[in-house]
Amino acid sequence: MVKVIWHGHACFELQGKNVTIVTDPFKGIGIPEPKAAADIVLCSQSHQDHNNAKPVLGKEGQVLEGFVGSKKVKGVSIKGVAAFHDEATGSKRGKNSSWPRSWHAVRKSIYNLLALL
User: Fold this and answer.
1) What are the beta bridge partners of residue 40?
2) Is-contact 51 20, C-beta < 8 A?
3) What pLDDT does 11 receive?
4) Dihedral, CA atoms, 108, 109, 113, 115, nearest 10 degrees?
5) What is the predicted pLDDT for the residue at 107?
């Protein structure tokens, strides 16, 4: 079974039996920073409200910040898609990456995580 924890803002933690993933850990937004021991930390951009990896990163964890492309990390397939943080193709707030969030992609990601149990 996968446990999903919302830490606030855009930060989610997915805990499987063998792998924990944290997305967009934050600081400086008026709520306590998330704490975890993630194997994989996905930071969509370099702003502090999306890239505070230190308090959630496990001892041998890996951080992917602004990652675009496909790769396998600790047995989990990760796909980062290039995006812009503003309506001016990134010229105001920069570029970022996102991870497909269609129901099919979510279901497939959870299935892949469950397969590691």
Assistant:
1) 21, 62
2) no
3) 93
4) 20
5) 55
Q: Are 20 and 39 in contact (CB under 8 A)?
A: yes
Average pLDDT of each block of 10 consecutive residues along the chain (117 residues)? 89 90 93 96 82 95 89 86 66 62 51 52
Bridging pattern class, strands 20-23 and 57-65: unpaired
pTM of structure: 0.77
- Outline where DSSP puts E strands in 66-117: 69-73, 76-84, 95-98
C-alpha pair distances (Å), 19 with each of 23, 58, 67, 74, 76? 13, 10, 19, 8, 8
Contact 20, 42 (CB under 8 A): no
- H/E element holding 40? strand 38-43
The CATH superfamily holding the domain 3-65+100-115 is: Ribonuclease Z/Hydroxyacylglutathione hydrolase-like (3.60.15.10)
